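Shipment paperwork, digital attachment
Item: protein structure file
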Amino acid sequence: MYAVIVVLVQSLAIGLLSMVLLLATRNHFSAIFTNDIDMQRAVAQIAYLLGITMVLNSIQPVISGVAVGGGWQALVAYINLACYYIFGLPLGFLMGYVFHWGVQGIWFGMLCGTFIQTLVLLFIIWKTDWKAEAVQAAERVRLWGGQEDGTEQK
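Attachment content:
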């Protein structure tokens, strides 16, 4: 569990730093990609969504990776489907087209799906008995040809 905490804190720090840099340069960073002043203004107006996305996307893949590494591939897939495709995208559609928020509404809806997915996976990882998982993994290694009785097989 300690390794998970360390990697999450590091990822969060990188995401927050990226967000701060992005927000600090929101009126200028788009000049790297376009010379169109109207486009640069539009990007500056939605830079806060990109900043939030950077923080969420610094944490969510790490948590998903821990869960997949723990052997819960199917569970992660179902959580992804439910949170992102069943909740986030329809919410983005509603906010973007029904409530006329445009790009910001679509993006916000997808962020909500990613946020919920992150919370659900964090809860699962937090509630996992990692000592029991380690015992189970050691038993599988022993059963499938790993070490037996403290001696290596040759």
